[in-house]
Amino acid sequence: xxxxxxxxxxxxxxxxxxxxxxxxxxxxxxxxxxxxxxxxxxxxxxxxxxxxxxxxxxxxxxxxxxxxxxxxxxxxxxxxxxxxxxxxxxxxxxxxxxxxxxxxxxxxxxxxxxxxxxxxxxxxxxxxxxxxxxxxxxxxxxxxxxxxxxxxxxxxxxxxxxxxxxxxxxxxxxxxxxxxxxxxxxxxxxxxxxxxxxxxxxxxxxxxxxxxxxxxxxxxxxxxxxxxxxxxxxxxxxxxxxxxxxxxxxxxxxxxxxxxxxxxxxxxxxxxxxxxxxxxxxxxxxxxxxxxxxxxxxxxxxxxxxxxxxxxxxxxxxxxxxxxxxxxxxxxxxxxx
Length: 337
Hints:
eight-stranded antiparallel beta sheet, single chain, 12 strands, two-stranded antiparallel sheet
């Protein structure tokens, strides 16, 4: 009998340490990648209060009223309807948005599980609510770091979240921000068509001006200036397309993302397990890391002027001084400045 008690006590202690580890992992993740939307606030409350209750020797379970009061400050009325709306998000769009990032973040911290939210239904009866808590879920094998001898690095990048794309980009990219088949080619052909149209139009107008016997007028000069601007923009589009093909990743143009989105990349990639014959897909993705100097968020940006034709990670608190490299294959980086 004493052996069974010792075994149960040891198992409870192990479980408590397990829950505390995932709560601290979630809190660390939210401190860098969290936002002010209510689902993030719910997760932050659960992480902070789980750590606090475990330190007090209490069960880290919470009802709807306590969660809503912490997030909104409201203490009256039905909290079930409020939480049920968020519960759908935690099992739907919100989960798709940030679950992969949390998995990668937990794996980089050496965990084999990642934190998520769980609901324990009540036995019924007046005043009995379901209880909410954090639960440890196994990290999928595809999200675990591959054992290999990675070069020495200073930071690890993770996919930050799914993104808010512009209206026209949403026509080409699916809910996972991936474009394949004809949608991927739509990203390419307008660029080449624009270059061809500008080239033919410029050649035609220059030929027409060469046949005119009258001296150049102000109107002709303005037309030539417009042709030059169009040719410059066409060259920019072609160079951008060429860079995407050569480097496999470029910073996404501002017209492709929402007004408040920063650090978004357009990347050519092959899905895991794809063969050599599998065509590449295009996706919009946002990588983020934690600055080892000031613990602020690091987002990708153009390397110019100091690091031409490179995508670098810039600390959001010190973007000119805390600069890191970015390796899209290993998702790691080392300090550049």
